[in-house]
Design brief:
The protein has 28 helices and no strands. By secondary structure, the chain is mainly α. α15 packs antiparallel against α16, α17 runs parallel beside α19 and α22 runs antiparallel to α23.
Length: 745
């Protein structure tokens, strides 16, 4: 207390010091004193009030505790009295058992009396209910059925309460109401018929469907009530729970499955497009049904049925089952494509589940796959295997068909530019194009695999094509009169090579991704090489044909008859030009090559005729005449092949220069200059061999054996400076082997 007083005094001193800091504040001392006195009185009054309030509360609490104590004592006394009374009344309760049994019996009799009217009218109600069902008044029929079931259930319940082991009376009640069970089954049959046709009924008579749903809902409520009573009493009427809601969904599920399976109207034997038709019918039916379910059916069912999503799941499961069944069948390649295209693309497209009218309820991204990836891979593997066999068969058949055309007596067709061709390239690449388009419908990976397969098989096919073209040539050589249009069809084969090249490039450009170029570059190179070989061999066979006709005229060259004025070269030129009128039907890349080859072979054959030493000029006059004739004929060849090569941009004069160079050696009048002239010839054409020089000197007719040997030996020792642009030609020309040894003896 002393410490508190000291703190109070110190606080008062501070307050007074704060009030009296200036002299003029001394005049207000009395005013300050009165103000502080008022504050003190106010604080004391509040303290008194608070203390008084606390005292009143304590007084009230003590009073309530006293009352509670008195109440507890009273209750204790009452419990003692109740316990005493209960002990005294035990015997009395046992004496009331007969009364209790009478009450139970009275309750049962009261229930019987209450249902007496219904009990006596059961047969009549059954007939009425049956008539209502037949007339389609299902709601009224169900109401009467409910009344009958209620009467039966109440009687059986009372019997159960009275004596649950008395099965005789229970069976008696059950038998009496036996027709009621038949009515229930008959009504259920009508309900399930409506449910099965719900998607049709909802369009024609939605009221009927609503009535069915109401009946099912009533039964569901009764089922729940009976199950609750079973938990309490252990009793449940026969036939409960009916579970009609569950049965309804089972019926719908079976109906959906049947509808999906029933869309197959054809078989492979009756229609090769059976699967396409089947899948299209499924697509149309499912889409139509789901649209009806969303717009109409959903309004006929309570929201908690979630009927649209339930139906959606049923259709999805039914489709998955059907697709798996189809996938397990022995499908052909086109059928596998149809199935996978439908499953992977059509199903989720705007034509079906992705239809805008089904959103947002249907989310295609949340739908499970209709068939597993493993099954998809198996189908794709089977498809690729089947497709490989099919492509091999198609290519073989196409080639066989083309070969039949080769022996026709009519010329092959020409394209818009007038070049001969057969239908083989178009057939082959149309087949490839169709298969690639089909594969692209499934996915990009399959398209790439099919493209690789097509090009691989094309590679093998071209090898067979080359072999068949060679056999065609060999068969023709056995009888040159057959086939009649051999030249024209061989031209078509050559042109097909160019068409194949262009088609391969077009196919790759259209279907090949840039990142796969490297994978197929080797295959493409091999195909180009094979096509070039086919074309080259074809051109060679055509030139063989030309030179077989030229052979009699080539044999006249460098003979006495030739020197006397034979027109062999003129005939050769006319024959070559005539053939090249047909060869004009060859496409440019190969025509150009063929013209150059024909030019080279004519010159080679001409030089070979010289080297065969059919003639040996007797004097300078003959040598001059023969050389001038050679120069003239070289000019004829030059003019011919310049004409044939018009527009090709190729230099066709170099080959004929060889003939003229040889003619200059033969024409030379001064034998002393012969070595110089021959050395000039050798320097220009370094592939000339010793036997060529010996044969040439033999044709001159004025060179002695020693001169020949000297010139040859001297030339062997001299340096050679070949022209880098020169293409060897003498290496193809052989000289009779006996000639050189005879000369050198």
């Amino acid at each position: 207390m002393e410490e508190t007083d000291r703190e109070a005094v110190a606080t008062a001193v501070q307050r007074v010091a704060g009030m009296l800091q200036r002299p003029d504040q001394l005049d207000k001392v009395e005013q300050y004193r009165r103000r502080e006195a008022r504050k003190k009185a106010s604080v004391e009054a509040r303290l008194k009030a608070a203390i008084q309030s606390q005292l009143d509360g304590v007084r009230t609490g003590l009073s309530q505790l006293h009352n509670a104590l008195n109440d507890v004592k009273d209750i204790q006394q009452s419990l003692i009295d109740v316990n005493k009374d209960w002990r005294q009344s035990i015997n009395t309760i046992e004496n009331l058992k007969d009364v209790k049994d009478a009450v139970v019996q009275h309750s049962q009799l009261a229930a019987a009396v209450e249902n007496l009217k219904n009990i006596f009218s059961v047969p009549e109600i059954v007939r009425e209910t049956h008539d209502l069902i037949e007339r389609g008044e299902l709601l009224h029929a169900h109401r009467k059925l409910m009344d009958l079931e209620c009467s039966r259930d109440n009687l059986m319940y009372e019997q159960y309460r009275m004596d649950s082991k008395n099965t005789h009376d229970m069976n008696l009640i059950h038998t009496y109401f036996g027709d009621m069970q038949k009515l229930s089954e008959e009504l259920a049959k009508q309900l399930w018929m409506v449910v099965q046709r719900s998607l049709v009924t909802v369009r024609r008579d939605p009221t009927l469907l609503v009535s069915v749903v109401r009946i099912i809902e009533r039964e569901e409520k009764i089922d729940r009530r009976m199950l609750d009573r079973k938990k309490q009493t252990g009793f449940i009427p026969p036939g409960r729970p009916k579970s009609w809601k569950e049965k309804m969904f089972n019926i719908l599920e079976r109906t959906v499955s049947t509808r999906i399976e029933g869309t197959q109207a054809d078989t492979r034997e009756s229609d090769k497009m059976w699967l396409v038709r089947h899948l299209e019918i499924i697509r149309k039916y499912v889409l139509d049904d789901l649209l009806v379910a969303k717009t109409l059916l959903d309004q006929c069912f309570p929201p908690h049925y979630d009927i649209f999503n339930r139906l959606l799941n049923m259709y999805h499961q039914a489709l998955a089952t059907r697709m798996q069944e189809l996938a397990a069948e022995d499908l052909e390649a086109n059928e596998i494509v149809s199935l996978l295209t439908w499953v992977l693309n059509t199903y989720t497209s705007a034509e079906m589940m992705g239809n805008s009218e089904l959103s947002p309820e249907v989310d295609v991204n949340s739908l499970d796959p209709l068939i597993s990836q493993n099954v998809v891979d198996q189908l794709l593997s089977k498809y690729m295997s089947t497709l490989t066999s099919n492509i091999i068969g198609w290519l073989r058949k196409a080639l066989e068909t083309d070969k039949k055309d080769w022996i026709k007596e009519t010329e092959p067709e020409a394209d818009q530019d007038g070049y001969y061709q057969t239908t083989l390239p178009a057939i082959v690449f149309q087949m490839f194009e169709q298969n690639l388009q089909v594969a692209a419908q499934i996915n990009e990976d399959l398209k790439a695999k099919v493209l690789i397969l097509c090009l691989q098989q094309m590679n093998s096919f071209l090898t067979r094509y080359k072999d068949e073209a060679q056999l065609y040539k060999e068969d023709h050589l056995k009888n040159r009169q057959y086939p009649q249009c051999y030249v024209q069809y061989m031209i078509a084969v050559i042109n097909n090579c160019q068409t194949f090249k262009e088609s391969i490039i077009s196919l790759k450009r259209k279907y090949l991704k840039s990142d796969m170029e490297d994978v197929l570059s080797i295959s493409h190179t091999n195909m180009d090489a094979t096509l070039d070989i086919i074309a080259k061999e074809g051109c060679s066979s055509l030139l063989d044909e030309v030179f077989m006709d030229l052979e009699p005229h080539l044999n006249e060259l460098m003979t006495k008859k030739w020197l006397m004025g034979s027109n062999a070269v003129g005939t050769i030129c006319v024959t070559v030009e005539d053939y090249f009128n047909d060869f004009a039907k060859i496409k440019k890349p190969y025509k150009k090559t063929m013209t150059l080859e024909a030019h080279r072979r004519v010159v080679v054959e001409y030089i070979r005729a010289i080297m065969l030493k059919r003639i040996s000029f007797k004097n300078a006059e003959e040598r001059k005449e023969g050389a001038e004739r050679m120069i003239k004929e070289a000019e004829q060849f030059r003019f011919l092949f310049k004409k044939l090569a018009a527009g090709s941009g190729e230099d066709t004069e170099g080959l004929c220069d060889i003939i003229e160079a040889i003619a200059e050696v033969i024409k030379l009048t001064d034998p002393s200059l012969l070595y110089l002239e021959v050395s000039t010839l050798v320097s220009k054409y370094p592939d000339i061999r010793d036997d060529h020089i010996a044969a040439l000197l033999t044709v001159r007719g004025d060179a002695s054996r020693d001169m020949k040997q000297t010139i040859i030996e001297t030339l062997d020792q001299g340096p050679s400076q070949p022209n880098p642009n020169y293409v060897p030609i003498f290496k193809e020309i052989t000289v009779p082997t006996l000639t050189v040894p005879k000369l050198l003896k």
